[in-house]
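Notes continue from the previous slide.

Worked example: a multi-chain complex. Inputs as given:
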Amino acid sequence: MDLLYFAWVRERIGLPRERVETRAATVAQLIEELKAREPRYAAAFADLNSLRVALDQKLSSFDAPLAGVREVAFFPPMTGG
Amino acid sequence: MDLLYFAWVRERIGLPRERVETRAATVAQLIEELKAREPRYAAAFADLNSLRVALDQKLSSFDAPLAGVREVAFFPPMTGG
Amino acid sequence: MDLRVQAEAFDAGAELNAFTARVSGAGAVVSFTGVVRDAGQPQGGGLQRMEIEHYPGMTQAAITEIMGQALARWPLVDALVIHRFGTLHPGDPIMMVATASPHREAAFQAAEFLMDYLKSRAPFWKKEVGAEGAAWVAARDEDEGALGRW
Amino acid sequence: MDLRVQAEAFDAGAELNAFTARVSGAGAVVSFTGVVRDAGQPQGGGLQRMEIEHYPGMTQAAITEIMGQALARWPLVDALVIHRFGTLHPGDPIMMVATASPHREAAFQAAEFLMDYLKSRAPFWKKEVGAEGAAWVAARDEDEGALGRW
């Protein structure tokens, strides 16, 4: 599964993308796995209210299932326009 | 007193402006005087709902007094923009 | 405040760029351009030209007042109104409004306000001339009604 | 529908003119231009540049969907969105939206709808870089709230 990070999520974790093997069933479980890895992940995922997630390029929610998903992106609320 | 006519008011009356001597106290009285003059005036002023009046270049109402007014303009509802 | 009432054509894009350059602190620039409908379109079937009449003594003052109200009501950096009179042809810009503000909501609202008031309170009258004759454009009840929201 | 996501600068005035020429049946054209605030203005004090990051795989699809919603909801002749990413400087246009309709209300509403959705649903992130450091632009609660009206 490809993980993508944008804006300050990318800066805190220190890389724009990585490939992970996971058995997490939901986004929330994947986040718990990542937070347990290293402090920089814990820092990036500390406040879920200030985070958004997209599954295969579609905005989604933290309780969404990961079955069949190939690309998970984490980022702050968007500031386009 | 100068009378100005615009758009189809001008076309019905047949001239863009004219000078009149009047003792009419209000716009409504002036309109009655004009209607009594000739059928083309009666035609122009037949439906006051479709007419607007400006006194000295300010949008006004038919019951407004004419005292001190130098220029009265009659026209249909505006269609700017 | 920049207001021009003119017979001459204008270049809406060039005006937008000049306005945007002038209000560089703004962040948000909204423009409205009114265009004579194309004869080739169903809405404009057969339109050959548009004749716009105005009331020279009143136009400048009426629009200046409307613009003053907009500038007092919203945090605008500046506002622009250009309105043509005389003979126009399908595809010609009739008029444009531009507003600039640090906030997009203010820029949008002020532009809509200006348009609503220009439609019903600026002394212009449009006549459409087509193959089968000419007709004065009637004011729409919705346009008068639109003033109620401000 | 015309959508461009690009690093290159664009000329908002030239784009407005090209769009207006293309939608000649429309009558009403509304544009919004978002500009990097000028360093000389109080609001942008000390801003040296803006870095805009985006999510290439998602941006095009997300904006296309937003534009499709606008075209389905209002009687638009066409809509245009241009959005830059990369490094921008004070005074540079960041993005523009244009809408064209026979009705000015529809053109205004569709442009506001597009802006509200682009603000909060298009995957762009802005970082402001000034003399004293850099900071990511925070999403405003009002921007998220603005979606509620549609």
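Summary box: Chain B has three helices and five strands. The two ends of chain B are 30 Å apart (CA to CA).
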